[in-house]
Amino acid sequence: MAVQISPSILAADFARLADEAAAVPNADWLHVDVMDYHFVPNLTLGLPVVEALRKATSTPLDCHLMIADPDRWAPQYAEAGAGSVTIHAEAAKAPVRTLREIRAQGARAGLALNPATPVEPYEDLLPEIDMLLLMTVEPGFGGQKFLDLVLPKIRRARELVSRHGGRIWVQVDGGVDAGTIGRCAEAGADVFVAGSAVYGASDPVAAVDELRAAATRARG
Ligand SMILES: O=C(CO)[C@@H](O)[C@H](O)COP(=O)(O)O
């Protein structure tokens, strides 16, 4: 699968979200971080903003739910038009049902793991998902330093996914920039979330192109 870049609007100007979405027409996805002050110590945005963004951009929305009760809310993000909805393994109490409900609404279903959460216990869930999101920082805030300790897990995740037919995308999120994206790509990631590295750049379009080129080069 070709490299995909998903700029995180957490690093964008929340007062100008439609313009910020339009600022990266070369992005494959727009990553939308939903936080609820419970699963993570930060609060961002919810369904009404996702519904508004859906109307404001044709770029598919990649909704990452960092919320305490994804079983209750995730299907509604899919219904609101998100192209992909990712729930955290640490928060979901009924992940099989929730992942199936996301797919039933026509969205891709993702499972996210915090840096210290191992991937192996979730092997049986792989048939239920379209994407595995490996956090490369502790979730909650943009602008954090990339955690190298996640690299071996990216390799193990790639192996597991390959054993299951290679259909599932491996996404990395947190501290991804021109200096770290190559290592993630070499380890087996194929979808890259980048907040500060895109929206903190003077030219976000060029930043997306550079990240894509660096990841593509690293895959060889
Ligand atoms: O989910 C999160 C943070 O919890 C991320 O999506 C961040 O928004 C990535 O930001 P950068 O580390 O790229 O600045």
Question: What can you see in these coordinates?
Answer:
The chain has 220 residues and is an alpha/beta fold. The chain has a single domain (4-219), classed as TIM Barrel (Alpha-Beta Barrel), CATH 3.20.20.70. It contains 8 helices and 8 strands; from the N terminus they run βαβαβαβαββαβαβαα. The chain has an 8-stranded parallel sheet with strand order 1-8-7-6-5-4-3-2. Helix 3 runs parallel beside helix 4 and helix 6 packs parallel to helix 8. The protein is globular and about 45 Å long. The two termini are 13 Å apart. 5-O-phosphono-D-xylulose binds at residues 8, 10-11, 31, 33, 64, 137, 139-144, 173-176, 193-197.
For the record, the count of structural domains works out to 1
Please identify the structural class as seen in this structure: alpha/beta
Number of alpha- plus pi-helical segments: 8
Topology as H/E string? EHEHEHEHEEHEHEHH
Strand order of the largest sheet: 1-8-7-6-5-4-3-2
What is the mean predicted local confidence, pLDDT? 98
Biggest pleated-sheet summary: 8 strands, parallel
Number of strands: 8
Pick out the low-confidence regions.
none
The ligands bound in this entry are: 5-O-phosphono-D-xylulose
Q: At the third CATH level, what is the topology name? A: TIM Barrel
Radius of gyration: 16 Å
CATH class category name? Alpha Beta
- How much of the sequence is in beta strands? 15-25%
Q: What is the terminal separation in angstroms?
A: 13 Å
Give the overall shape. globular
CATH superfamily: Aldolase class I
How does CATH name the architecture? Alpha-Beta Barrel
* Helicity level: 25-40%
